[in-house]
Amino acid sequence: MTSNVPMITMNDGHKIPAIGLGTYSLNGHTGADAIRQGIDTGYRLIDSAFNYENEGAVGKAIQDSSVPRDQLHICSKLPGRRHAYDQALVTIEESLLRTGLDYFDLYIIHWPNPKTDKYVEAWQAMIEARKRGYVRSIGVSNFLPAHLERITQETGVVPCLNQIELHPYFEQEEQRKFHEKHNIVTESWSPLGRGRGEGVLEDEGIRAIAEAHGKTPTQIILRWHTQLGAVPIPKAGSLAHQKENLSIFDFELTDEQMRVISAFSKDNKRLWDQDPAEYEEF
Known about the structure:
Elements: E1 7-9, E2 15-17, E3 21-22, H1 28-41, E4 45-47, H2 55-64, E5 73-78, H3 85-99, E6 104-109, H4 119-132, E7 135-141, H5 145-155, E8 161-165, H6 173-181, E9 185-189, H7 199-202, H8 204-213, H9 217-228, E10 230-232, H10 239-246, H11 255-262
Parallel strand pairs: 3-4, 4-5, 5-6, 6-7, 7-8, 8-9, 9-10
Antiparallel strand pairs: 1-2
């Protein structure tokens, strides 16, 4: 099932699948089983975080899956309380020990936490982690253009990816344009905008588009992401949803259908008011 998932080349030359499996709240043995099922179903990009407290479940899933390690793209994230240089490096080591992996394909800074103002130091640690072979690609999450410009100017290293809140209610057009200009891959968290209930998935216009393509509303929204050039990472624990989310590369939305979906962004607001210019997560 993976053969029809396109690969996207990042600015460091490494490639990443065009859709991934989000693992937030997939914990313990149940979580490990769900993640392993996702891998066996066709996911090759697995997104975790130190703060999800499920890196062990990810490692167990990899161990139990039928897919060789070198075909997988495993990502985790550095928490805000570990931005200090030495702490960041130890945290990445701890993530590796938790998963039982020799390296991460991608490791990213979870939030910039600008009030604490150690994200440049954290980025310098990420660069060192890559030199040491702990990680192959390094990126960030929830960084605004100002944050991206600063770490690039102070280190000379451009992140290969920025994972941001992106869904039909918040299409992030200006942020995506900045990424495109600087050859940074856009990755979408909360891609279906679940925090707003089922609104977009129940919308008559979205349902009409889905019916026209013989797809579900969820598949329509995920396809919208990929046609925007973004990599969605929807969480899915059930086999049915995992299969549904992967089956989005055998059709294409028209320009008008893309506009219908983007029109939900007229208010262009974050679901939980987590503005990276102010919000901090530790």
